[in-house]
Amino acid sequence: MENQDNLSKIQIEDQKIILNKELNIWEALIPVIILMCMLAYNIFFVGGELLGEYSNQYILLTAGFIAAVVGFFNKVSLKIMILEIWENLKSVFIPIMILFLVGALAGTWLVSGIIPAMVYYGLQVLSPAIFLPASVVIAAIISIATGSSWTTSATVGIALVGIGSALGIPTGMIAGAVISGAYFGDKMSPLSDTTNLAPAMAGTDLFTHIRYMAMTTIPTITITLIVFSILSTNIETTGNADISGLLHTIKSTFNISPYLFIVPLIVIGLILFKTRPLVALGTGVLLAAVFAFIFQSEILGNLSSSNFESIINAIFIDTEIQTDNEKLNELFSAGGMKGMIWTILLIISAMVFGGVMDAIGALARITRELLKLAKTVFGLFTTTVISCLGLNAIASDQYLAIVIPGKMFKKAYEDRELAPENLSRTLEDSGTVTSVLVPWNTCGAYQSTVLGVSVYDYFIYAIFNYLSPFMTLLFAAFHIKIRQLAVK
Question: How far is CA 330 from CA 84, 166, 324, 333, in A?
Fold first, then answer.
């Protein structure tokens, strides 16, 4: 959830790391082990239906209750736990509002013809042979310009998934390409909050951090592009005749016009000019509603008894536009704000669990124990990576996956006479980009919902994201570009 607005709201840099001397490492791990076992059983043995539709939410809350019990036995008051949960919930208020607006955006951009227009023109421009690497590049450019992987997914990401689906490319591949490009751009953009947060935690400046980070990031994105180029040449896609049929169906169903691109261009322009995300996305919803009345009055009339009611349904409930093509019927449906409820409840449940774990001192205890394992320089880098990965899974928030290791490991890097940019780069390589690989993390939940592709489907194709921590460890193992502190 990378945007400047979030960072200013939560002031995460000032967060206190709660220590609890009463708590031992095994007690700290009890809720984590139970959480992982329940999630694994739910995913691999009962198809995600252990406790019904909201299984993951119930599991996170159950693990949070167990963590609270552990806290009670270690002299942590209920008041402290509630206060920490409240702090966590406050930190995701803006992201939740963004999620609601993204749902509304998807609905209004559908009924206004914006998404169909993107698909219509995209099918004619993007060849299947270059589609996946092109998606990486397009997402990276937008993300660098906006500083936000969230905005990238909500705009060009949705369009690229639609275009690729129409071409017959697996949605997991498309989402993986979009996410790889979006997180590359977000990671390297000076406008991104995580790119500002990591050097602040480590004690270096923004542009030193970006330059140093490029050393591991450029090879990683290069490998990513090569893999997607190979995949593009080996996947089966629909033929020209099928594409012609899709184009005809889209054109006959919607009033397609280049003027429809005015709305997404205005939204991206507002973000480039550092308008608050809520304002930019809200503007996108309102403009799309107006454009729906202008360009798609016939569709609005078919959807409901009044055009206004059709717009309201697109914003708040759901919309399904029927065509004579089954593939397009699936593509031309949107859940509106209602479709975001499952994800929002998942984020809230994750924040409850993470808040209790922080309040009882479990997060700090686990991180400190990992730090004890760092006997060598490579060991220090490895424990930093493991901490970031673990906190993305346990705390369910990428900010905490940067802040807690950043504060806990800073002195260790100084003691080894390592420049702070080593730490800031490692925090980004393992904390920022892997958050999207955890289904219950705020980033994983957001991306899977917005793109309409589950984390399990895009995980293997989010190449840039899971390759990044391996790249930073490779550099550490061979002592490549490991900068020492300047001798004073």
Answer: 41, 10, 11, 6
